[in-house]
From TrEMBL:
Family assignment from sequence similarity: Belongs to the transferase hexapeptide repeat family.
Positions of the Maltose/galactoside acetyltransferase domain: 8-62
Official protein name in the record: Acetyltransferases (The isoleucine patch superfamily)
InterPro entries per UniProt: Hexapep, Hexapeptide_acetyltransf, Mac_dom, Trimer_LpxA-like_sf
Enzyme Commission code: 2.3.1.-
A single cellular component GO annotation: cytosol
Pfam families cross-referenced by the UniProt entry: Hexapep_2, Mac
Alphabetic keyword roster: Acyltransferase, Transferase
Gene3D superfamilies: Hexapeptide repeat proteins (2.160.10.10)
A GO term for molecular function: O-acyltransferase activity
Organism superkingdom: Bacteria
Amino acid sequence: MDNDFESIEKMSSGDWYVATGAEREEVAQKTALLFHEYNQIGPTDPARTAEILRTVLNPASGTCTIKAPAIIEYGFNTTIGEHVFINFGLTILDIAPVRIGARSMLGPNCQLFTAGHPVDDWEMRSGGWENGAPISIGEDTWLGGNVTVVGGVSIGDRCVIGAGAVVTKDIPDDSIAVGNPARVVRKRDDSRLERSQLPEGASVDALGILPTKSPRLSENIAEKY
């Protein structure tokens, strides 16, 4: 086997590669051990769990919360934005890059799978060949519990993906999508903002983390699908 087909660079590129090779195994094992520790610690040592995330995730990541248990296969290919909150049971297979935008939320047991295998060529599949495609999740987006996102998918900013959805195609900004496969059922609508239900004087930005200016919908973006 040509060592190039076993390299981390080949794995991350989206080309066909073989999941063998000492370098890749070393990185995967190191990350697996760190997440084993992460899950054993749970909520008992926040400083150590934060240190593990800084060690594992792409250096461009911000400060985020990931509830244990969680597993990220490699880590260096995963970039998580500032103030992202991820609930229990996360799984990320990041042989290709994964990006989660600032202030997004993932519900329990969400799964992001960049990994792929041959579909028609069963001999190639059984022979160990794999490839990957990136996943991008925008800012201020909410994935409900048990959402699965497959490789090659981009989900835009300010989207809501309903619980149990399987996202197999791109979802544009400001969309509400549900189902398997997920489909857009409507656009986010400024006339339905829940802030009208808040007590008088309550701040929309209760955590003080929103950008200075929030995007508003244009007149035609609320068009129904």
